[in-house]
Structures are given as C-alpha cells and as structure tokens.
Amino acid sequence: MPITWVMPAALALVGLLHLVPAAGAISVRALQALYGVDPGQTDLLILLRHRALLFAVLGLLLLAAAFHPPWRLPAFAAGFVSMSGFIVIAQLAGGYGSAVTRIVVADAVGVVMLLLAGGLQVLYGRG
Description:
Blueprint: H1 6-19, H2 28-35, H3 42-67, H4 72-93, H5 98-124
Helix pairs in contact: 1-3, 1-4, 1-5, 3-4, 4-5
C-alpha cells in the first residue's frame, strides 16, 4: 500500500521536533533561546534541563518507533499527549510570549501530523 510510509515518516519528523529542545539539557543558552526566559534560579534551571532531557527520551522513542512498528502505538500516544497537553496548558494559562507561541504552533503541526498518520494507520492497517 503506498501510504505505508506515512506513519513512520510522521513519527520520525515529530521525533526530530522533540529533539530540538534536548540541547537545553546541557546548555543554558539553548534554554534561553528556546523559551525566551532566563532560568536564573537554580531550581528553574534544573526543571527546564530535566524537561529537555525528557524531550530527548520522547524524541528518541518516536524515532525508534518509526523503524520498529510494535512501538508505534505507544510512541504515537506519548507524542500526542505531550504535544496536545502543552497546547491545552498554554491556552489555559494565556498571556504567553512569542517563544511559547512558536512552541504552540510547532506542537499543533506535530499533532496534525500524528492524527493524519494515525488515521491512515487505522484505515489501512500496519505497514
């Protein structure tokens, strides 16, 4: 079936999208550039670095699932919950700046990609 590449491609692209903030795990400057904030407090710096580490783990899971079909459903679910959850949290909080707006837009694109790929996977089965 010609659409069999869609789910792995979507997972790989969303995985790469999750790896972007992973640089924040080792670089304060990357955190500042990504989020437009200065994590001056040690507690905030630790939390943001841990968040970056978790994104790296999720990104690697999504990339691996692109090539290992049994992992696709859990990776799809984790990516969907992560991205849609951030969008909901941002919308509920409101009043966010341009850095968070970029993340909301990127996550919205990722959610659409996952939903499209997931829908095709349900319609046409495993590939």
